[in-house]
């Protein structure tokens, strides 16, 4: 059995380009698929947030009009209810040693743009895990958290690494649109990451050594499968 650290946003609001507040949190499908798949495989999954604050679900990710499938919404809501205690009282990330875990998984939702992208504890955990060769697996907007991984000398820890992330086209066509405060794909590319994208809304995973990333919610199953494969190896 492996131990997996799941770093989840604690942000329930994101300031948009026009200055308005947008309700946010983690994306239900992404957290549910990753948590359920990894737990069902027999691994221990520890959910942690900055400061140990409650992990909120993005209300849009449980909206049938957004998800497009009432059965899936019910499925995701039921699983979140089952792990409600974990989400209400997650571990405080700053108290954990990421090298004591075999993998670090970061589901998305727009929440990571609000907190994980600039949190020192997140950056320290990601740098420690990556340097130790642990699996690092962010997906959808989860790769925003990688932006926090700046070394003492100002170097971006994931510069030169191949990865994928929610694309600008996906953001403008089915995300926050023109009101997005910034684009995660652009921010990562500007820091030196090599961003590789596939067709919008298609399952797409990029593996670069111990770094596994997924493009969007549709990639959730493939990301979980890739993490399991690396853990088995």
Automatic annotation (TrEMBL):
Any one GO molecular-function label of the UniProt entry: peptidase activity
Cellular component GO terms held in the UniProt record: cytoplasm
Membrane spanning stretches: none
Keywords of this entry: Hydrolase, Lyase, Protease, Stress response
Keyword Hydrolase carried by entry: yes
Organism superkingdom: Bacteria
One BP term from GO: methylglyoxal catabolic process to D-lactate via S-lactoyl-glutathione
Gene3D superfamilies: 3.40.50.880
DJ-1/PfpI domain location: 28-229
Pfam (any one): DJ-1_PfpI
PANTHER family, per database record: GLUTATHIONE-INDEPENDENT GLYOXALASE HSP31-RELATED, PROTEIN/NUCLEIC ACID DEGLYCASE DJ-1-RELATED
UniProt similarity note: Belongs to the peptidase C56 family. HSP31-like subfamily.
Name the record gives this protein: Putative intracellular protease/amidase
Organism: Xylanimonas ulmi
């Amino acid at each position: 059995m492996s131990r997996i650290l799941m770093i989840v946003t604690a942000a329930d609001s994101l300031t948009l380009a026009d200055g308005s507040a947008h309700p946010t949190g983690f994306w239900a499908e992404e957290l549910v698929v990753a948590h359920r798949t990894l737990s069902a495989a027999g691994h221990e999954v520890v959910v942690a947030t900055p400061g140990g604050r409650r992990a909120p679900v993005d209300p849009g990710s449980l909206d049938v009009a957004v998800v497009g499938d009432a059965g899936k919404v019910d499925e995701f809501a039921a699983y979140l209810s089952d792990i409600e205690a974990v989400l209400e009282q997650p571990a405080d990330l700053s108290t954990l040693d990421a090298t004591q875990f075999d993998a670090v998984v970061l589901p998305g939702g727009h929440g990571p743009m609000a907190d994980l992208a600039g949190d020192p504890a997140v950056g320290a955990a990601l740098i420690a895990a990556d340097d130790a060769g642990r699996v690092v697996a962010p997906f959808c907007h989860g790769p925003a958290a990688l932006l926090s991984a700046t070394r003492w000398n100002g170097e971006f820890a994931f510069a030169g690494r191949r990865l994928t992330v929610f694309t600008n086209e996906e953001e403008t066509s089915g995300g926050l649109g023109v009101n997005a405060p910034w684009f995660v794909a652009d921010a990562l590319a500007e820091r030196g990451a090599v961003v590789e994208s596939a067709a919008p809304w298609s399952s797409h995973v990029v593996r670069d050594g111990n770094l596994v990333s997924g493009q969007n919610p549709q990639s959730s199953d493939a990301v979980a499968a890739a993490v399991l494969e690396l853990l088995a190896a």
